[in-house]
Amino acid sequence: MKTRMPSIICACAAVLGAAGCAAPKKAIYASPQFTPAAVAQVAVLPIVDSRVGKAEPIELQKDVGGYLRSRLEDRGYTVQFASTFGDVGTVSDVDLQSPDAAWIRRLGPPDARYVLVVMLMDLKSTLTFGSTGNAEVSGYLFDRADGVMLWHDKGIGQVGQGGLLGMAFKGGMASDALRVAVADMVSSLPERRK
Amino acid sequence: MLVHALEATVGPGGTWNAWSGAITSSMSRSAFRAALVMCSSGEVLWAQQVELRDLPAVDASAFQDALTTLYASFPRKAVSRP
Q: β-pairing, B2-9 with B29-38?
């Protein structure tokens, strides 16, 4: 028994160490030329509602915008919300599938260099043996001057609670899921050290 | 030209944590899309989409219902009968 103790302790330490050192989330796309320190300010364009079904009511700028700002600021970015998509007029998920340099240069306010497009892909809350909320968001960071995409990722949020307590909280499940999804998406954005 | 598309999104499934009572729902979903396009001008004459919060089998009633709903708003062609 004496000889086994050190190996058991080592095994436990290895498991705890592995759990504590979980790999950070990797973005779907991160350009090799993305230098976070160079991004003085990010212009966040109006959040796009790209949901197929829009049954879940939401105030995009209020419910997503405020939390998005705090998450971006936590990662060291200075954020400014833009009220227009610029010369492109509107943005849809089709535009973002393979945006060319000319389109990127026309995206957003003319005085902004770095623009972030955030799309709400899905949002729902469900009443079951409790209640659940699901959300999916997608983000794209562009460099207008060079006409390139610097970063792209998605974030998902799944929340819920069973029982009567969960049923009582149904009204807040969608917004909770949205916050989790935004945090998940932004977590792969490289941190900016000032 | 009538164009159809079925976009299936496979997401994490539902969960239940017996200790905390936390539950989650599956994120998988399907989007049925169709559009009637005039080839000469590229104009979209009619378009509709239906979302299903599932990945249904082709023979499932939910699949058939989604298709029925998708085409429910397709304009009827007036047919003159003798």
A: antiparallel
Please give the Cα distance from A119 to A94 (Å, whole number).
Answer: 12
What single-letter amino acid sits at A81?
F
- On whether any CB of chain B is under 8 Å from the CB of A94, the answer is no
A interface test, pick of B3, B6, B9, B24 with most A CB neighbours within 10 Å: B24
* Domain segments of chain A as ranges: 28-186
pLDDT in tens, B4-25: 999 999 989 999 998 888 999 9
Which of A52, A132, A156 is the closest to B23 by Cβ? A132
CATH number of A28-186: 3.40.50
Query: Could you say which DSSP state residue B59 is in?
Result: T
Phi then psi for residue A158, to 5 deg, are -125, 115
Instruction: Report how far residue A188's alpha carbon sits from residue B77's, in angstroms, rounded to the nearest whole number.
Output: 52
Cβ-contact A128, A144 below 8 angstroms: no
Question: Which residue in A134, A162, A166 is closest to B27 by CB distance?
Answer: A134
Q: Tally Cβ neighbours within 10 Å of residue A54.
A: 12
In this structure, the strands spanning B23-24 and B15-16 are antiparallel
CB contact under 8 A, A134 and B15: no
pLDDT at A194 exceeding the cut of 90: no
